[in-house]
């Protein structure tokens, strides 16, 4: 077994979870949106105006230089499009999306229609790197989670710009890109860990009942996260830094979980600490409805990346069973933060 600072991915092969860097998946389906791409016939624009673009993600497995499609955020009519895979086998699939560097839309909505209903995820298409103050997040696969799909074309991923909150880069066009989606077979049965590291210091919620999107199980560096008592105060958030305590409380108290990856080196750290997270209404809402977990992004960056937190600050929200409900990865004032998390 490999241990150490490098992230060890928990994957499913031959019916059991193993710690490994590689896995051969039973099936992988990629759908692209421009002629000449893979499975273009499984892409369907259902509303609004979609336009050809020369921009194309160079994420692994894609057809190069064929372009993609985008919706202009300035258009009055909302736009939506669907990736509808023809799956040869039922089972659990991890769903990914990607966009080119020209992606420039905040809080793009993705609706995942699967065998257990609909789930919603939000992504910032920040190809120019404004929100991250550096490298953009285009040209990469971004996971929307793992879901149970039936065989055939009974499920889909829909991209919609109806809830976008402007463009990260004010100097460029506001565009939400439909470039490609990827469906990777994980298991024919619900992914439940049968092999767990003996004393992991970070093990996000492992649902006890069938769920649509279990949080990945990860192991971290040997240095344990200290077990601390939550801060008990009506005027402050009751933070915990022990994920086992968080998952226990989430289940027994039927509360959601908020993971907060922070860094005191981030330009938004002080603003969040002194403004948003100190606001009385925000504190009251979080303490009533969430178990709030706080981790240093720089110390646990590998684990953050595995959960889709690519910078600090990032908040990831889960229901009590471990289904991801939403993510915030830029600064929001108190009222906007509160209005957003009420949707999760």
Compact overview of the structure:
This protein is mainly beta and 344 residues long.
Provide an overview of this structure.
There is one protein chain. With 344 residues, this protein is mainly beta. The protein has 2 domains: 28-187, Jelly Rolls; 218-341, Glutaredoxin (3-Layer(aba) Sandwich), CATH 3.40.30. Helix content is 12%, strand content 33%. The protein has 5 helices and 20 strands. It has helices at 243-252, 269-274, 280-289, 301-306, 334-341; strands at residues 8-13, 16-19, 28-32, 43-47, 51-53, 68-72, 80-83, 91-98, 104-114, 117-126, 142-149, 156-160, 175-178, 180-187, 218-219, 239-240, 256-262, 290-296, 314-318, 324-328. It has a 5-stranded antiparallel sheet with strand order 4-7-12-9-10, with no helix packed on it. Strands 16-18-17-19-20 form a 5-stranded mixed sheet. Strands 3-14-8-11 form a 4-stranded antiparallel sheet, with no helix packed on it.
* Number of separate domains: 2
* Biggest sheet character: 5 strands, antiparallel
CATH architecture of the largest domain: Sandwich
User: Could you name the CATH class of the largest domain?
Assistant: Mainly Beta
What's the total number of strands?
20
Roughly how many Å apart are the termini?
A: 37 Å
Helical amount: 10-25%
Strands across the major sheet, in which order?
A: 4-7-12-9-10
Determine Rg (CA atoms, Å).
Answer: 20 Å
Residue windows where pLDDT falls under 50 for at least 5 positions: 1-26, 192-233
Q: What share of residues are in beta strands?
A: 25-35%
CATH topology of the largest domain: Jelly Rolls
Helices and strands, in order, run as EEEEEEEEEEEEEEEEHEHHEHEEH
Give the helix tally: 5
Mean pLDDT: 79
Structural class, from secondary structure content? mainly beta
* Inertia-based shape: globular
């Amino acid at each position: 077994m490999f241990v150490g600072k490098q992230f060890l991915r928990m994957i499913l092969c031959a019916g059991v979870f193993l710690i490994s860097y590689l896995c051969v998946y039973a099936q992988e389906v990629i759908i692209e949106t421009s002629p000449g791409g893979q499975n273009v016939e499984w892409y369907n624009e259902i509303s609004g105006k979609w336009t050809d673009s020369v921009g194309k993600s160079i994420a692994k497995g894609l057809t190069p230089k064929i372009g993609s499609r985008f919706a202009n955020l300035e258009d009055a009519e909302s736009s939506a499009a669907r990736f509808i895979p023809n799956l040869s086998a039922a089972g659990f699939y991890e769903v990914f999306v990607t966009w080119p560097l020209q992606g420039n839309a905040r809080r793009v909505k993705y609706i995942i229609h699967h065998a257990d209903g609909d789930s919603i995820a939000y992504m910032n298409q920040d190809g120019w790197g404004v929100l991250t103050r550096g490298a953009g997040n285009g040209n990469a696969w971004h996971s929307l989670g793992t879901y149970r799909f039936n065989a055939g074309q009974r499920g889909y991923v829909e991209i919609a710009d109806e809830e976008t909150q402007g463009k990260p880069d004010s100097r460029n066009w506001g565009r939400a890109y439909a470039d490609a989606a990827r469906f990777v077979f994980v298991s024919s049965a619900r992914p439940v860990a049968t092999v767990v590291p003996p004393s992991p210091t970070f093990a996000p919620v492992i649902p006890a009942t069938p769920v649509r999107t279990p949080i990945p199980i990860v192991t971290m560096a040997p240095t344990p996260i200290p077990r601390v008592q939550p801060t008990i105060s009506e005027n402050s958030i009751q933070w915990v830094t022990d994920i086992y305590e968080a998952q226990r409380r989430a289940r027994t108290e039927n509360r959601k979980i908020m993971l907060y990856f922070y860094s005191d080196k981030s330009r938004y750290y002080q603003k969040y600490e002194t403004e948003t997270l100190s606001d009385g209404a925000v504190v009251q809402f979080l303490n009533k409805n969430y178990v709030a977990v706080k981790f240093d992004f720089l110390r646990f960056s590998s684990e953050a990346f595995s959960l889709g937190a690519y910078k600090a600050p990032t908040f990831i929200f889960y229901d009590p069973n471990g289904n991801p409900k939403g993510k915030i990865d830029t600064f929001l004032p108190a009222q906007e933060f509160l209005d957003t998390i009420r949707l999760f």
